[in-house]
Amino acid sequence: MEDFQESLSPFSCFPLSSTSSFLPILHLSSSSFSSYNPYPLSIDAELWLMAELRTQEILCIIQPSLVSEEKRKSIIGYFQRLIRGYYDIEVFPFGSVPLKTFLPDGDIDITALSHQNLEEDLARCIFNILQNEQQDSEFLVQDVQYIHAQVKVVKCTVDNIPVDISFNQIAGLSALCFLEQVDQFVGKDHLFKRSIILIKAWCYYESRILGAHHGLISTYALETLILYIINIFHSSLCGPLAVLYKFLDYYSTFDWENYCISISGPVSISSLPAVVAETPENVGDKLFLSQDFLRHYREMFAVPVLSLEIGAHVFPVKHFNIMDPLKENNNLGRSVSKGNFHRIRCAFSYGARRLGEILMLPGENMGVGLEKFFANTLGRNGRGQRPDVKTPVHAFGTGRSEVFDLTGDYDHHYNNLSCSRWYHNCPSSVPAQPSVLSSSSQTEKKSAWDALRQFVRCKQNIFNWRGSNLFIPRLPFSHPCASQLAAATYGIDKMTKSRGTGTYIPDVVYPSVL
Q1: Which partner from 82, 108, 282, 462 sits 20 to 30 angstroms from 212, CA to CA?
Q2: Greater model confidence, 320 or 507
Q3: How far apart are CA 110 and CA 97, in angstroms?
Q4: Which pLDDT belongs to residue 502?
Q5: Going by C-beta distance under 8 Å and a sequence separation of 6 or more, which residues neighbour residue 391?
Q6: Is the four-CA dihedral 396, 397, 403, 405 of positive or negative sign?
Q7: Cis peptide, bond prior to residue 427, ω within 30 of zero
Q8: With 70 as the cut, is the pLDDT of residue 99 above it?
Q9: Distance, C-alpha 192 to centroid of its chain
Q10: Cα distance between residue 322 and residue 328, in whole Å
């Protein structure tokens, strides 16, 4: 992130054209959990429209493009062919790429499915395969790392795009389905997804508070915080800029010491483990997402409980407490350290004050102010080149942009989730570790993938779910250097280098409060 350490000069802006189009005036309310500045969002509706139009120009620079999406899809396809070819197991994307909310510097998250007891062997084998792929691959594979932690992750960079390979992340696939459904329900030309992209950009490029691997906010936690704002204040939000201001203003004064955030309202920490959401006073809006809506999707996208999680039903209180919409005992904010918690609050406070000042400026100056507010974002991505593709793109300030459809493929996501659940429930008779044979020569030939192949032989190729047939392909693939690859490398230390915006993968055992 050295590129972002210095403040960049804002681009010269062109005048914002006036318009007679009407957007509803945004009314602010006070609550027992947040105090609001009543002035910025009481401005004239025409000025709000002008500000939202300028914000949309910024969004067009950082949102996914056709070229960047196709690039990521080709990388995902490469890993699917590679891993399926060796082990005949399924590999699915999750996170911001299939949700279509990734930033130009965002990473790719994929998960490989296997029996739970074979995750470590599979991770080590994939690590070895990718090390060999650095010399002979259709893509440039670099910086291969194996994170030997409780949650196994293989990291690498492919054509300058960070890739994280995890294992059996059913929770990530469930969250993808849930967020896609919520976006369709919210509507307003993908207000939810556009707000995610804008707020992620501010958190990543401007305030440096995004990234669970650095003890900061995870992407899923941030998405949950944004969804809460829309759930509470939906009728007064006309665009992503309004969501951003409400987000900063509300969370900068939220009582984080005594409450945690749930999708339905603040929950008193003292009341835990009982979860009783308190609706902020004088908000005026009813919840956009009803309890029946949330209950339906919790049941629909329920994540199977792992053996290590049995008995861990208490919400683990940390410094920055955010309740998972799909699993109430999962704290999405537990990655945030005490020091970073104060850093995040300061960033929210400064951002709310600065953006409030900008929104009080006259129209022309407001446009300049918004460019300064996103100076690092535009400096990194607004010069006609994205860091994730080689082909030139439209530069900021040219008045030209690409139309990109943010609608995701929910049916495909749900089929992937269904397949992952089938893997989880598939019985396996293989041991957690390969058995030791009496013959020394046989022992040398025995590998972890022998056990893996035993497991995948229990699969069926076709099964029914939701009334439709799903086909699990068995692609023939033979790597020319397969015989040279060791089955596992057991001397790998945990590596800490992290890239991309990062996706938070929950641990199954919660540490104590720091």
Answers
A1: 82
A2: 320
A3: 10
A4: 57
A5: 67
A6: positive
A7: no
A8: yes
A9: 14
A10: 9
DSSP 165: E
Residue 490 to residue 181: CA distance in whole angstroms: 42
Model confidence pLDDT, tens digit, residues 304-313: 765 555 455 7
Task: Report the distance separating Cα 291 and Cα 97, nearest Å.
Answer: 29
Q: What average pLDDT score do residues 480-506 get?
A: 42
pLDDT at position 75: 96
d(CA 378, CA 59): 10
Which residues, in sequence order, are bridge partners of residue 268? 259
CA-based nearest residue to 101, from 243, 233, 229, 222: 222
Q: Which amino acid is at 430?
A: V
Do the strands 108-112 and 161-167 form a parallel or antiparallel pair, or are they unpaired? Answer: parallel
pLDDT, average across residues 116-125 = 88
CA distance 413 to 317: 31
Residue 313's Cβ-count burial label (10 Å; 0-12, 13-18, 19+) is exposed
* pLDDT tens profile 183-224: 999 999 999 999 999 999 999 999 999 998 899 999 999 999
Q: Please, what sign has the CA dihedral across residues 31, 36, 38, 41?
A: negative
Cα–Cα distance for residue pair 483/9, rounded to 1 Å: 54
Residue type, 304: P
d(C-alpha 98, C-alpha 100), whole Å:
5
Widest CA span of the chain, in angstroms? 85
